[in-house]
Design brief:
The chain is α/β, with parallel strands linked by helices and 453 residues long. It has nine helices and 26 strands.
Length: 453
């Protein structure tokens, strides 16, 4: 196997509590009506504990670099000040109210002035109101099941046995969720979670020095060639690329409806296709038989959902994709989406997904699904300051790309770009050497090591 190529890019203690009880997902409950706190926290590292606390309270939290501990405590009905002492133990802290802004919490070993590292709150998962996704066991009557829980099937994929159910209100949705979880005919059920909007592209100012557009020659793929690669680009709508790259793009398909006019600014899929092709060009010596199959899971919306992503993945697989680029993500893990991805993996399909653009170690999905290659971003050889990190991440590649639409250059940044590069590296290597996906994946994980945080 040829060596994989190098990418060249480059807080006086004062307590101000909220007006309603605040519950952190780790078992911490702030009851502001009684000014008392309950807790049951077991072996949780300081940083994720503070991420949850920041998200639930709205506080701005700052930590002295190098500060860590395992938070383990259990108590009930303590005053807030005593509660924080129990939580932080031998760590120092100060909670400072702000006149015109959120309260600030400082956690430190030496001095409050040294607590300079901000805790970035993880984004809470949201879902489409009044919808559930279900995966049913083979032979189950989906229409009868939907009727039994008071739902209407608004979308379906009978081949996969997955169905999108619509309910009249939130109470009916939540009640049905419990019923379906207990139903032996239901393999998986979840809310239909929202995915975050993709990062925008930025225009490169006129006169700025930029690299030339990618030069890549298409080698016509031969029939039944095991080295043939079709990249399933599961993303936004795509525009027509410049003439040299347009032949590498197959006819787009959509699982999210008509996107309408796309405008003159590159869409996210347009921006992702180019680093994929850039990496293919460098990994394959400038010529390749690979093709990109764009699958639009956004349509005219700025966001997508776990349902659209699931059916988009299956559409890519059904239309010949043998490698998937998922430059998208959500903080929510959907068992139904997981099942679709696992089925694709069982068919031998290699998957790369973006780790997320928050500097936290919280997992992003589908990147954190076992077997998916989670890709984070580097900047000048170090972990990019915006990039997610953590044990779920498999590799790190550059997170910036210059792209073109017409004669105008643009720049796009994020772990989505890193994911596109990774997909291109794997694709270019496959079409050049015909190595197996497992060999390529293992080599890439060794080559593109995640820098220490």
């Amino acid at each position: 196997m040829k060596n994989l190529y190098k990418l060249q890019f480059g807080l006086a203690l004062a307590l101000v509590l909220l007006a309603t009880p605040v519950r952190a997902v780790n078992g911490l409950i702030w009851n502001t009506n009684t000014d008392q706190v309950d807790a049951d926290v077991r072996g949780m590292h300081l940083w994720p504990f503070l991420e949850d606390l920041a998200h639930k309270t709205g506080w701005h939290i700052y930590v002295e670099p190098g500060t860590d501990k395992l938070v383990s405590t259990k108590f009930k009905g303590l005053p807030a000040g005593e509660a924080l002492k129990m939580v932080f133990g031998d760590l120092n802290f100060a909670l400072v109210p702000q006149t015109n802004g959120p309260t600030s919490l400082y956690v430190f070993l030496t001095s409050m002035q040294n607590a300079t590292k901000p805790v970035v709150t993880r984004k809470a998962a949201t879902h489409v109101p009044n919808q559930l996704m279900v995966k049913l066991k083979p032979g189950t009557d989906a229409d009868a099941l939907a009727k039994a829980v008071g739902a209407k099937i608004v979308d379906r994929n009978d081949k996969l046995g997955i169905y999108l159910l619509q309910f009249p209100d939130a109470a009916a949705t939540d009640a049905a969720l419990g019923q379906l979880k207990a139903n032996p005919d239901v393999q998986a059920v979840d809310y239909n979670y929202n995915f975050e909007p993709p990062p925008p592209v930025q225009t490169v100012p006129s006169g700025t020095s930029v690299p030339p557009q990618t030069s890549l020659k298409l080698d016509p793929p031969s029939d039944n060639n095991p080295c043939n690669v079709v990249v399933g680009l599961v993303d936004t709508p795509i525009q027509t690329l410049n003439p040299d790259l347009a032949p590498f793009i197959l006819k787009p398909i959509s699982t999210a409806g008509d996107p309408g006019p796309l405008g003159s600014t590159p869409t996210h899929a347009t921006a992702m296709a180019q680093p994929i092709l850039n990496a293919i060009a460098q990994a394959s010596g400038g010529h390749s038989s690979a093709k990109i199959l764009p699958v639009d899971v956004y349509g005219a919306s700025e966001t997508t959902t776990s349902w659209n992503v699931a059916v988009g993945i299956q559409a890519a697989v059904d239309n010949g994709a043998n490698i998937l680029n998922l430059s998208l993500g959500s903080p929510a893990d959907s068992a139904v989406l997981d099942s679709v991805i696992k089925q694709a993996q069982a068919s031998g399909i290699l998957i790369f997904a973006a780790a997320g653009n928050q500097p936290v170690n919280s997992p992003t999905y589908p990147a954190a699904i076992p077997g998916v290659n989670a890709v984070t971003a580097t900047q000048q050889g170090q972990l990019a300051p915006y990039a997610n990190y953590g044990s779920f991440i498999d590799m790190a590649l550059p997170g910036t790309s210059v792209i073109y639409l017409g004669s105008q250059a643009y720049v796009v940044e994020g772990t989505s770009v890193s994911t596109a590069y990774a997909t291109g590296v794997a694709t270019g290597t496959k079409t050049s050497n015909c190595d197996g996906w497992t060999q390529i994946q293992n080599s890439m994980q060794q080559k593109f090591v995640v820098p220490a945080k």
